[in-house]
Structures are given as structure tokens and as C-alpha cells.
Amino acid sequence: MDKAITVAALTVAYGAATALSAIDLEIPKGKVTVLAGPNGCGKSTLLRAIRRLHQPKSGEVRLGDLPISGLKEKELARHIGLLAQNPSAPDDMTVEELVRLGRYPHQSMLQPWSTADGEAIQAAMFGTGVSHLSDRRLGSLSGGQLQRVWIAMVLAQETDIICLDEPVNHLDMAHQIDCLDLVRRLNQEHGRTVVLVLHDLNLAARYADRLVFLKGGSVVAEGAPVELMSEQLIEDVFGISCRVITDPVHERPLCIPIRNSSPRFRAEQATQL
Amino acid sequence: MPHASPTKSLRAHWRIGHRSLFAGLALVLFALMYLSLALGYRLYSPEEIWTALTAFDGSEADVVIHDLRLPRALMAPMVGAALGIAGVIVQTLSRNRIASPDTLGLNAGAAFAVVVASGLFGVVSLPGLSLASALGALVTSFVVFGLAAAAGGISPLRIVLVGVTFAGLFDSFVNVVLTVNETMLDQLLFWLAGSFADRKLDLAFNGLPFVVAGAALAVSLARPLDILQTDDSTARGLGVPLGVVRGLAFVAVALLSGAAVAMAGPVMFVGLVVPHAARALVGLGHRLQIAAAAMVGALYTTLADIVARFVIYPREAPVGAVTAIVGGLLLLVLLRRRAA
Amino acid sequence: MSSLAPRMSPALARIGRRAWIAVAVIAVVAVGLALCGIGFGSTWIDPRRIVEILLGEGTRGERVVVLQLRAPRVAIAVLAGGAMAVAGYLLQKVTRNELASPGVLGVIGGAGLGVVIFLALLSDESNALVTSIVWQPVAAMAGASVAISAVFLLSGQQASSAVRLLLFGIAVGAVAKAATLILMIVGPIYRTTQASRWLAGAVNEINWAEVQVVAIGLAIAMVGVVAVARRLPPTDLDEVSARGIGLNLPVFRILVFALASALTALAVAFAGGVGFIGLMAPHLARLIVGRPVMAGIVASFLLGAIMLVGADLIVRVLFAPTEVPAGTVTAVIGTPYFLYLVLRRGSTNG
What ipTM was reported for this prediction? Predict the structure, then answer.
């Protein structure tokens, strides 16, 4: 299996608090990798460290065989695209203006705009189905449309690897599915490597080729969803007792939560009863 | 959606190209500059103006046109362009549509630096004052943004509160210096209100290099500034080195508003008003936005300078007071529309 | 309710007693500082001697210095500082906004504009007022009321956000200040220097007639303050809850705004726009006496008086013989405090 990114003994700290401790991980090329885990487990930090938004305390992230610490900002931005958590842009910016921003890493001061740039933004808007919105202002879009536009901006960046940090956080169920279907299509039709941070375990299991569980700043387990979605493992990682069945439609594992089983929560319950 | 906003910039809406738009703006600007020579306490005909500029013979009309009107006809557009561009940059940097060199305290900082330099250190040379002014703006921008950052990323509205508070503090300091040094009061009172009256042509030529340098730096930063309209993570994801770009942008703002303040004093709220007009004309791309802000700013201050000669005719109001009223009203409109 | 029932619980009564003891201590400090304010000058006069002079003794020279030169200045500082502080207390209470004060809500700017319009319209050729000076605070009050009404009408729903409300106030204040500037140029030069001096906040060159005007106006306004004070506590509640216990908040607010405008106007009309006292004094008062309203108002008044007398004393000590506006000192002290409030995390919505 080809690897797109290698994370080697990566430790990231915020001041004195360690957010990630000695992580080793390989992100396979051309697959959808989902980072999942309870709140504060470090999944977003890991994604951001992969895109070098956090400086590691020790260890490194390699792109193929190259350590990313040696790359220039724009160079790195030509390899890895990032859709940040809750991205923001002015309400009166038009869709096309935003998508054009994705071409920044491909341009130089002397050559600000090329036909390749124009083609890339057309393709990105077409691929995400927002071409008809190109003159609309961002403030006039629905949440689902807006998220597609942001994905279009990341696509216009034309990177092999795309990182998305909780892309479906504020979307309703229909738009969550819509958005993640789009991401999977980009992966399957264009062969892009996708790294996703997802909150929802069942969405993670449904869309991941490869699932990574984090807890307390460490990788607890990784593998195909079918391997990872065991009742015992989910209880260990998420502190929840559950049943895992097979989703009859997509034939993916589906977790049905039963109750909070974390020791502290159980203790609180016990004292109240 | 509260109201149907036009989906395109006015330029696209009117179906005119960039060239026609800027040619049109330039035409209006020249017309206004001509009016700036012609209108005032005395009105002059085109012939009188032409002879004054080409064949100066020392007549009263020649002296007024050449020594009084010409400097302000040249300086007003320069100051307006400088403050307009500075306003665009500051609004993008703070992601805040009510930010401006005034509301962030930069102009007040520059003015304070000028008063200190001339009042306490006896600096009289024009380049020296321009430099002091730019340094004052630069230091203030670092302090205001630094405080905001140190507080852990405060909301855009609070940055403005911090800036306005600093502006008030600088005003008090200026008051102290002026009261202690009464001889300066007369010279500086009109300057402090922001005005183009009684300026020598030297002053305009002296500010020019600062304005040109600031504008050039701004244009070279146009594309990273485009990206800075998004959040920090997205901007870094696109490969923009935030620290470098912000630092250079501060320098550009300091050069521009420093030069403007050194020339005319703090002409209030030009940097607040102009970027809104520029964005409405050409959209959010910074290359065009900066160019449009320069043109619109030049137009606006030249027009305001003419208006200031007539609002309390036969006396003349400081142009800064005129722009402050317009800008203050626009600020109210923006706040009401929750544009910020 | 039975008349035998205690009016409040022992705990609340204890809080109230403690508050009034604190107020008494502040009052002693205020009197001491006022005496120092009178005593300090080109010649130092002993506080005991000042009391004797005030009671009718002393040489002719001493009487002129104390009664004609120094006492009016201190008296106006006491009254203006106090009025500004009470205005701030009322505004902070009724807007439930700890950042509110007459300065940032455009009230000072409006009052200043009112005075300049008054001076410009009602002066004759030789720059003498054609009407009594008594009307000057009325003009200031009209300006102040217009300004604060504009701020609240324009902000509408956004008034509930502390920071947004302040920005509306700042914008209105900026317009008022610019208009003031233009009018000052219309007016004769002598008035300009006078006006620019008091716009910065200064208490020099005051005479007893002006002190009298402020004192009488303040006495009337304070009657109103006492009347609303009994009903102030429920404004700590939100609008619906306040209505639930029988207070019509919107109407009540207008009343309080009018009072705050009047107080600010009285101060601004003669002492000029001294910033930040309306912000700091009420905070300090609440810190010292806690929640009780009447004690809080009295403490605010005294602390405001202390601040302005103190600020005036500082500029006299530091810059004598030049007359630097006392507002400079309050701005230098007030700015860092205001910044601290604004930058403190999660302190206010907005």
C-alpha cells in the first residue's frame, strides 16, 4: 500500500499541556482516512499538525519521503489542501471570488493569473455543483451550499491530499450526507487522498476506507471500519456501551449507543440513585 | 436575508470594463481638482487659472491660485488616496468593516508623534515630521493589534473599542503638550482638525515618496491580502505566511497614514468610508480594490475640501470636521446594518 | 403585611450597615481632599486655617484667595465629578452594561454641542451673552438628551450588546464632536480658546454664580435620582422578568436616561467633558459598598468628587503655573482601566 503521509513519533504541546504524544501513523494514498475519537482526543490537532499549522515539539510529518518542515509555505499548499473548522470569509464576497483564492499557491507575483487557474476554478465549481452560484454572495447561501463552495475552494488548490476538519459540523442530516458523498466522489473519481476529522462515529464508519481512533493524544487503534467497530473497542475509546450491527443498506458497521459507561459518569449516577 | 443585495459589483452590474471605470474616475478627479483651483472665497475663471499656472506675474489672483489653491488641489487627492488604501488594508487585516486608521487609533498616534517631535524635540524638517508620523502610526498599530492578540483574539468590535480608546488617550496627550507649549497651539489647532488649507507645496512633495512607497507595498501585497479575508487556518492552509504579510501590511499602513497625517493632520474617517465605496465598485479582489480606493479616496477628499470652503461661508471649516460628520453617519449606518 | 415583620432579613440589614460605614469613610476622605484642594496653590494654607476662613475669619487677602479663587474651583470639581459619577452609576445599572458611561454613550459630546450652539446663537456682536448663564446647562442638557436618545433609537435591538451599544455611542459622539468643531470656528476666537479648554475638561476660572447654578440644578436632579433609586434593583433582571415583578422597563429606562443626561449636562456645562469618571467611580463604588443602591449612589458621588478634585490637584502640582485640563489625568488613569474591561475575556457579550 502506497503511503501519502507518514507521521513519525509526533509530539505536539500547547504550552505545558501535551496534545499529541509520540504519534506514529501512515495515511494511505488515494484512500479516505477518518480520524475519530471523543472530544479533546487530539484528532483536530493531528490534522492541523499534518498541515503544519502546529509546530511539533518532537518527531516529524513526512510527505512521501520529504519532511514537511523543509517545504516552503506555498509548496506545502500545493500538496495539501485544508478545509478548516468553521472557515470564514466576508459575507459580501462572491462564490467565484472565494474559489479563486484557492489558486494562490500556484501563482507568483509576476504571473498572477493563468488559463490553468481559470480552468481549475471552473472545474472545482463544476465538480462541487456550485457553478450556477458563481455570482452569488456568500451571505446569501444556505449552510449546505456554503460548505460546497468551501470545498470547491480547496479543490481549486489542486492538491493530491485534502484535509477536512469536521466539515459537517453545523449541517443538517441531509446536507451532512450530501457533503460527505461529494468528498467520497472526489476521492473515487479523482483519486485524491482524503483525511477527515469526524465527530459522528457512524458517519465515520460509513465513509472511511481507514479509520483511526484517538484517545488522550494517542492513536488507540487503526484499521478498516469493520475491524475497528467492535463493541469493546468503542466502549474503551468513547466510554459508551453499545451494540454494533451491520447497516442493512450500506453494509457498514453501525453503532447503536446504549448508555454512557465512563467510570466517572457511572460514579455520579450511582451517588444520585 | 434582510434585503436583496446585488449579486455583482457595480462595475459588473453596469457592464463597464476596468479601464472605462478608472478612466471615468480619473476624469471626475481632474474636474474636481480644477474646481478646487477655481472655487473658494473668490471664484476664478479658466483663463485666470491658466495664466496663474503658466505665466505667473504676481497678481493677486496668481498668488492665491499658485500659492494657496494649487498645493491643496494637489495634496487633497494624495491624502485621500493614502487614507483610502490604508483603510482597505486595515479593514482586511482586522476582518472588520468599521476599522480604519481612525477607529484603530493610528491617525491619533501619528498626530501625537508629530506634536511630540515638533514640540518637545524641536523637529522642523518636513521629512523628519513625516517619519515621526509614520513611526507613531506603526507603533500604535503594533500596540493595538498586540493587545488584541494578547487578549487571545478578541472580536473585531472590541479591537475598535481599544483603538478608539487609544485615540482618546493620544488626544489628551496632545492637549497636554499644547497647553504646556502655548506657542504651538495656534500653529497646530487647525492642523489637528485635519485640513489642506495653508499648506506649502513642499509639504505635498515631501509626502509623495511615503505615499508612493506605501501604495507600492500595498499593491505587492494584494494577493496575500485577498487570502487574509478568510480565517487564519484557511489562510495558512493556502500557504500565506501570516506573520510576514501582516508585518509588511502594517508598514504599508504606517507609511500611508503617517504621510497623510503629516501633510494634512488627521482627516477623520476617510479610511472608513472609502473602502466601502471601492468594494461596491470593483468587488473584493485587492488589486482592483486598492486601485479603486486610491481613486475614490482622492475624489472624496478633494470634494470634501471644496465643500469645507462653503459650509460656513465666508469662513472655512476644517475638512476633517466635514469628513468626520460624513464618516460618523456612515458608521451609524454600518452598525445598524450589522455590517460589522 | 404585618407592621411587626422585619423589613429585611438580618443578613441584608448587615450588608446595608456595612455599606453605610464605608460611605462614611469615603466622605471623610472626600472632605480631607477638598480641604487639600483649597489649601494647595501658590501659598499653602493649613486645613485648620481654611475651616476658620470658611467660618468667617482670616485676613482680607486670605479671604480673597480662599473664597474667590480656590473654593469655587474645588466646589465645582466636587459637584461635577459627583454628578458625572452618579450619571455613570445610573447608566450602568439601567443598561446592565459595565462599560457604559456618559463619555462613551455620546452624552458628553452631545452636551458639548448643546453648549456651543447656545454660545453661537445667543451671543451679541461683542461676544457677550444676551441671556443669563443659567440657561447654559439647559442647553447642555438638551444636547445630551438628543445624543443619548439618538444612540438608543439607532441601536434598537442591538442595545443589549454592551460593545455594540458603545460603538453607537462613539459614532454619535464623533458626529457631535465634529459639529462642535465647525461651530467653534464660526464663533469668535475668544470663545474658541475658552470652548476648547473646557471640551478637554477643566475646572479653572470658575465663579460662585456658576457654582450656584450647578448646585441648584444638581439638587433638583438628585431628588429625581432618589425617586428612581428605590426602583433600580429590578433592572438587574432581564426585560421580561422585570415586567413580571411589575416594572415597565422601557418607560423606566427613558426616565433614567433623562436624569443621567441632566446630571452629565450640569457637569459638562461648566467643568467640560471630563472622561472616565462616569466609568470608574461607579465601579469603585460597587466594589466598596456592594449592591445596596442608595449607598452605591452616595458612594459614587463622593468617589467622583474625589477623582475630579484629585485630578485637578495633580495637574496643579505637576504643571503649575500652566493650566492643564484635569480631564487629561482622568484619561491617563481611565484608559488602561477601560482597556482592561474591554479585553477581559467573556466580560461582556459582543
Answer: 0.88
